[in-house]
Amino acid sequence: MSQGTEHGAPHRPGLAEHTDAARRVLLTPDHPGALPPALRIEAAARAADRTGQPGLAALYRALAPAATQAAAGPGDPALVTAVQDFTDAVTLDPAGTGPAALRTLTAHGLDTPAVVALAQICAFVAYEARVVSGLAVLAGGPAAEPAAVTGTRDAITGTRDAITGTRDAAATRDADASPSAPRAADFTLDQLTWRPRVPAVDADALTDAQRAVLDAHTTLSATSPYYRTLLHDPAALDHRTHVYNAVMYGRGGLPRAERELATLLVSRANGCVYCASVHGRKYAQLSRDEAAALRVLHEGADALAGDARGEALARFTRAQTLTPPAATGADVAALRTAGLDEAELTDLVHAVALFGWANRLMLVLGDVHPARKLDAGIPRTDARESCSGTSGRAAQAGDA
């Protein structure tokens, strides 16, 4: 199931290996804690089914026999139902998955590390399923299995009906955005902060494993509440950071500005105000055009009208952000006509998929708030600031 060299990304060393490793530590960890492997695998398979990838779901379920030898099944039926409901919500409507969903999990026996692990599983599958989907479309296949699409549409309807407090913003958000996506006016290039909904790891009480992950990545900081939340599962954070850095910072391939444009569009569609703010600023910096970033932030794909390459990129990005993904051969043809080569197309697939992962973690595990004033000397846009890679002074300011 490698998503790197074997599936068309030979110019991104380590991507396949760390994708495989992330899957392994999330679904069949050596120490699963309160979330047994059988339940982890079933959650992953359910998310893959909901994302129109029954083949990927079958591959996940094939891991179950070995896993269930170490844990005797998923256990409490009420917990199973809670995990299924949470998986559906995170997969289908991450912006509408509120704190109550996390409280339900804890009420049924999951501790904070298990809740974070389950969120990581759902978010990881959003990534891997879109990589499989996107590479299939590049090869001339469908983005999702037709039967799975029908089932997912029914599930989306049920999830929308179950979510309370969802604003009616049909006139002010994209028609194919997340069901609970914010209004266009909610998005901003201002610097924001993020606060976790679950207790973060104590920075003064890190385990050796947690400290080792921080020491291994200059883009991680113990001062960030986001990273300290993800440090409840240090192995998953480690491999996720490798994947993120390969996709977003690797040399060559799709220009960095266009990777940021794609992630801005994905974040906007998914309703992640925090990620849209961060990557809107990065796009403004790399493109040297803050006005263009603001237009994309507020208008989405419409802001790119008249730019053939930008329009094609936005069209593919929007289609692949849907659940299930819905890009077509015509979308790929438009990208090729606009000049994207195979390496650039593969990078685009991975960047779009990656923010299915990043947005879901941000949306589900915490909340966005107005920024505190930055310390003197901190630039407005740090070159390494992102939803997964922040270094230096910006990390100390609390950006995730």
Automatic annotation (TrEMBL):
GO terms for molecular function: heme binding; peroxiredoxin activity. Residues 381-400 are annotated as: Disordered. GO terms for biological process: response to oxidative stress. PROSITE patterns: PEROXIDASE_4 (PS50873). It comes from the Bacteria. Pfam families: CMD. Residues 100-391 form the Plant heme peroxidase family profile domain. NCBIfam families: ahpD_dom, peroxid_rel. This is Carboxymuconolactone decarboxylase.
